[in-house]
Amino acid sequence: MHSILAVDDSASMRQMVSFTLKSAGYNVVEAVDGQDAFEKAGSRGFDLVLTDQNMPRMDGISLTKKLRENPQFKATPILILTTESSDQMKQAGRAAGATGWLVKPFDPSKLIEVIQKVIR
Amino acid sequence: MGNIERIDSRQVPAAREYLTFRLGNEEYGIDILRVQEIRGYEAPTRIANAPNFIKGVVNLRGVIAPIVDLRMRFGCERVDYNGLTVTVILNVGNRVIGAVVDSVSDVLEIPAQSVKPAPEINSAVDARYIVGLGQVGERMLILLDIASLIASPELGLIETREAA
Amino acid sequence: MGEMTSEGSQLSAGIDLSQFYQVFFEEAGENLDRMEQLLLELDIEAPDDEELNAIFRCAHSIKGGAATFGFADVAELTHQMETLLDKLRRHELQLTAPMVDVLLASGDALKAQLARHQTGAGDEFDTTELLFNIRAMVAGETPKVIAAAAAAAPAPVAAPAPAPAPAAAPAAAGARTLELTVGPLDDPSQANNLVDLFKEIVDLGTIEALDGGVAEGGMRRFKVVTSSSESDLLDLFTFHVSREHVRFAPIGEPAAAAPAPAADLGYGFFDDAPGAPAATEAAKEGEAGYGFFENSPGAPQSHVTPTESASPQAAKPAPKAAAKAEAKAGAALDAATIRVSVEKVDQLINLVGELVITQAMLAQNSRGLDPAVHQQMLAGLTDLDRNTRDLQEAVMSIRMIPMATVFNRFPRMLRDLAAKLGKKVDLVTQGEATELDKGLVEKITDPLTHLVRNSCDHGIELPQDRLAKGKPEQGTITLAASHQGGSIVIEVRDDGRGLSREKLLKKARERGLHAPDSLSDQEVWGLIFEPGFSTADQVTDVSGRGVGMDVVKKNIASLGGTVEIDSAEGYGMRVAVRLPLTLAIMDGMSVGVGEEVYILPLSSVVESFQVEPGMVKSIGNSGRVVEVRQEYMPVVELEQVFQVPRFDFEHVSSIMVVVEAEGGRVALLVDELLGQQQVVVKNLEANYRKVTDVSGATIMGDGRVALILDTGSLVRRSRH
User: Which residues in chain A touch residue C3, judged by CB atoms under 8 angstroms apart?
Assistant: First the structure.
C-alpha cells in the first residue's frame, strides 16, 4: 500500500485530498503546513508528497527544498498544488527539486489520474 | 342510548392502556404512555409561597421535578403520607412532573367501545379534564386527559406567559 | 480525459464533494474573521508586509476552497481581492484607506454569499460594484469609493449591499467591456446560444466571438460590452450553459484566472524531475496545467538520460514566503485541535455533574465510618473527590473560549459607527485571552455591544468639541476583560463627556422618579438603568432603538451578573460588568434555616457574623436594620421570606450573612452556616416555573434538592 504525505493549510482541501486518496486505496498522512510536513516526514519515508504551495510557516517550495536534502526523499515524487501555473512558479518549483505541479482547483478524478502517473 | 352525545371538543382517547390509581373514593385512569415511572413518596424540598398541593421539588436522577399532590388539589378530605402513598412520574409536554396519589392499582386495557362519553358527573376533577368513563367489569374508571390537567393554569405548574 | 484503469480510479470519480462543504464554510468563516481583524489593524501609512501576506493568504485560502467546491461567485470575488492584495504585498501598489474599505465590504459580501450557499436561502449578492472597484484599484485607478454600509449584525441574509453613492452610480453602472470565457463544453456550439441571447434581449449590450469563433479545448471566448451585472448575466446564461462553465474578466486580463479551464489539463511534470513519468505520458506543458520537471528526482523514465548533477540552482529567488513562524493566531493550531459539537460537550458536563453529586453523596455517607477500619476506602474516596473536581474543571474548560471572540466584533462596528457620527474613536482592548463559558459569551455579546455603542454615541464628543475642551480630538474606548476570583469582569471605558449629576437628577425628576439631592453619586449613576431613562439630548438612530440601559442591566442580571457605573463629568465613564465564569457550576455557601437548607452564591457573600443584642434596630414600620461598622443595612429574615415552618419556637436566628448584589447590601438572618461547596446549578424552570427570590436549584450530597437564592432579588426586596 502506497503512502502519501498530503500537505495543505486549508482543512477542507486537506480533507478532500485525503479522502480522495484513501478512497483510491492509498495510505495518507496529513500535515497542516510545510513545517508540520517536514517534521512528519523526518521519521519515515513516503511514496509521494503532495503539497500546497501557499502556506504559513513554510511554503511548498521551501518544503520541497528541505525534503530533497533528506536522503530518504531524494527520489520521492513531490507534486506542488498551486493556483498559479506561472513560469516564475515553475522555475521556482524546478529549482527546488519538485517533480511536477497540479493546478488548483482540480477534481478528485484528476488528482488520481496525475498520481497514477508517478506511483505505480 | 341518547342520541345527543355531548362530546364537545373532547376526543375519545386513542389510548388503549390505562394506569389506574385512587384518589379518595374515586378511581381514575390515565394513558400509560404518559407515565415514566412509579415511585414511593419521599419528602420533597418545599417551595415557599406555592399553593399547598404543590409539595415541592425532588431530584430524579439529576432532574429537578415538581411534585403535585392530586389528592389535595381535588379536595380529598384527608391526605396521609404513608407506605402506600405513591408518586406517579409523568412525562407531559417535555416536562417531568410527579403526581402524588393514594395508591396505584393496575394497568388495564380498555377497548375504545367500552369508553363512554362522560355525562356531567359530579367528580372531584373538573369535567374539562375528563375524556370519558371506562367500564371494566364492576369498576368505573374516570379517564383523565392528564396532559391538559397538568398544563392547566389552576395547577400553576407551568408558567403562563402573559402577553407583554 | 485519459483512460483510467488502475487501482481505485473508479472509486475516485464518485466522490461527493458536498461532504466537505461544512468544513469549508467554517474555515472560510474563520478566514474572513481573521481577514477583517487584520485589515482593521493595518497601518495604512506603513502596512506591515507580514500582515499583508497574512491577509492575502486568507483570501487565497477561501478562493482555493471555493473554486474546488464549486462556489463560483465566492471564487470570483476572492480572486479579485487576491489580485489586489498580491499587488499590495509586492509593493506594486500603495495601500489606501479606500482599498481597506473595499476589502472590508468584500468580506461582508463573501459572508453573505457563503451564508447563501450554506443555508440555500437568501438572494444572490450583487458584487458588480465591488468587483468594479477592486479592478479599478488593481489597475491603479481611483474609483469613486462607496461607503460600506455598516454591517451591524452578522445576519447574513440581511447583510447590506453597499449603497452606491449617487455620484458613483453612473460610473459603476456604466457599460464596461468584459472577456467572457465559456467552457469546457462537450459541444462548443452551445455557446452560440449566448450570442442569440444578446440579439433577443434589448439593452443587454453587445457580444462578439473571439478567436474567430473557434473553440479551443472546448472553451469559447467572447468580448462582451454590457452594463448588466455579472450575476444578472449568469442568471440569463444558465438556460444555455451551466454557471460553473462561465467566467468573466475585465478585458485584457486572462479569463482563466480563477478556476483554470479544464481544457488545460491542470497539472504537469518537469522533465527529469524525481518521480516524473515518461515524457510520452506527460502531457505537453502549456495545455496541461500540470507538469514534471526534467531530471527531477523520482521522475518517470523518460528517454532523456538523467544528468548526474542533481544539485539544482535557484535561477530566480522564489517569492519570499512567510517562512517565519507566525506570532499571531496560530495558523498551525488546527494540527492540534479537533472540532466537537457543543452537544457532546454539554452531555459530558451533565455526566460529570451527576458524578460530582454521587461523589458528594459517598463522601457524606462515609463520614461516620471508623478511619481505622475503613482506611483504604476512605483513602479511595479522598482520591475520588480530587479526581472528580479535576475532571469537572477540565470538562468545564472545554467550553471556555477567549473574550477575543467577542471583542473582535467591535473594531469594525466602532469604525463604521464613528464614521457615521462624525467622531474619531480609537478602540483599545485588553485581556482578550481571558476565557469565559461559550454560553455566556453568546449571551453577553448583545449587552456589550449596546454599551460600546452607547459610549460612542453619548460618551465620546465630536472632534471639535473635544479640541475645545483641550482633549485630543480622537476619543478612546477601552474594552478590558480580567478574571477576578470566580468571576470575569468586563469593562467598557471611554474618555468622553461622562455623566452629569445635575442632568440625571433633573431628568429623573421630570420622569417622576424619586431623586433627592442626597443621593450618592453611585445612586445617581444608577438612575440610567431605570426603565425608559435615556440621557441623549436627541434620539439618534444609534442607541435610540428602544433598547435602554435597563434592558442591558436586566440581561446581565439574568446571567447572574452585575453592572457598575463610575463616571467623572467631562472625563469619561466606566461600566464594569461582572459575570460568573460559567452558568453550570457555582461556589455556594449553604445556610440552615429551621430544618431547611438554602444556598447563597459565594460571590455575593461579603461577610457573616454573630448577632449581638442591640445590633438590630427597627425603623418605624419599614423593617429592621443592623449596624455594621457605622453602616446601617436592611435585615432580611429568610425564615419570613420563605415561610419556613418552625417546630422549635424558642429558637432565635442569630447569624447574619451580608450579601451584596446590584450595588446594594443586605444582611440575611439565618440559623446556621453549614459550609461552602461547589454546586451544580440546575434550573427550576425546566419542569416547574420561576420562583421568587430563587435563581435555581442544586442537588446536595444526600440527594435532596436545595434552592439557590437570588441575592439580587433579595436586595431589591429590601428597597421597598
Answer: none
